[in-house]
Automatic annotation (TrEMBL):
<keyword id="KW-1015">Disulfide bond</keyword>
<dbReference type="InterPro" id="IPR001190">
    <property type="entry name" value="SRCR"/>
</dbReference>
<dbReference type="GO" id="GO:0031638">
    <property type="term" value="P:zymogen activation"/>
</dbReference>
<dbReference type="Pfam" id="PF00530">
    <property type="entry name" value="SRCR"/>
</dbReference>
<dbReference type="GO" id="GO:0005615">
    <property type="term" value="C:extracellular space"/>
</dbReference>
<feature type="disulfide bond">
    <location>
        <begin position="169"/>
        <end position="179"/>
    </location>
</feature>
<feature type="domain" description="SRCR">
    <location>
        <begin position="2"/>
        <end position="100"/>
    </location>
</feature>
<feature type="domain" description="SRCR">
    <location>
        <begin position="105"/>
        <end position="200"/>
    </location>
</feature>
<feature type="disulfide bond">
    <location>
        <begin position="71"/>
        <end position="81"/>
    </location>
</feature>
<dbReference type="GO" id="GO:0005886">
    <property type="term" value="C:plasma membrane"/>
</dbReference>
<dbReference type="GO" id="GO:0004252">
    <property type="term" value="F:serine-type endopeptidase activity"/>
</dbReference>
<protein>
    <submittedName>
        <fullName>CD6 protein</fullName>
    </submittedName>
</protein>
<dbReference type="InterPro" id="IPR036772">
    <property type="entry name" value="SRCR-like_dom_sf"/>
</dbReference>
Length: 204
């Protein structure tokens, strides 16, 4: 089995695999984009947009199960790739990856991290969010995800980033990624503006 741990979604984090009932990590020696591509595809998370070493997502536990991984990028599973099972690594060299289906959010241009224009990182690029379905429910999900409390206002801005996301939450969800969403579909975003939010919490 394979998973990503320590990230902000199931498509970002420290690479961990299970061998004989024990979860372990992968050393970052020669860890590169083709290796990350195999992990992302195996987890149905798209492709790798960033790879990380040096325990970027925290230090793992258990054995270090792979070192000097050398995927070509077409393999279906990480364990099909050539690798050394002997290693000279510690957990401060745990490998990680950010896959294209990972979504992360930020608020920009406001007084702090809890106010501003909603921007989402997805498939390797930052996008704005269309305000055509940006209601209190969607804004509440975002404020709580960011640890920013509840919604005070939902201002609108101009779209200035290349991509556009649209979220529709039928009910409260722990993350906008678990709501219905579409990326770069022009019709629902036609004549929309860029969604913003002011939450009642304060962020850094």
């Amino acid at each position: 089995a394979l998973r990503l741990a320590g990230g902000r979604s199931r498509c970002e984090g420290r690479v961990e695999l299970e061998q004989e009932g024990t979860w372990g990590t992968v050393c970052d020696d020669s860890w590169d984009i083709p290796d990350g591509d195999v992990v992302c595809r195996q987890l149905q998370c798209g492709h790798a947009v960033r790879i990380h070493g040096s325990a970027t997502f925290g230090r793992g536990h258990g054995p270090i199960l792979r070192d000097e991984v050398g995927c070509e990028g077409q393999e279906r599973h990480l364990w099909e790739c050539p690798a050394a099972t002997e290693h000279d690594c510690s957990h401060k060299e745990d490998a990680g990856v950010v896959c294209s289906e990972h979504q992360e959010w930020r608020l920009s241009g406001g007084r702090d991290g809890c106010a501003g224009r909603v921007e989402v990182f997805f498939r390797g690029t930052w996008s704005t969010v269309c305000d055509s379905t940006w209601y209190d429910l969607e804004a509440t999900v975002l404020c709580r995800m960011l640890g920013c409390g509840n919604v005070l206002q939902r201002p609108s801005f101009g779209h200035t980033l290349p991509g556009k996301m649209l979220y529709q939450c039928g009910s409260p969800q722990p993350s906008l990624a678990q709501c219905h969403w579409t990326f770069n579909k022009s019709a629902p975003c036609h004549q929309s503006r860029a969604a913003g939010v002011i939450c009642n919490g304060t962020g850094s």
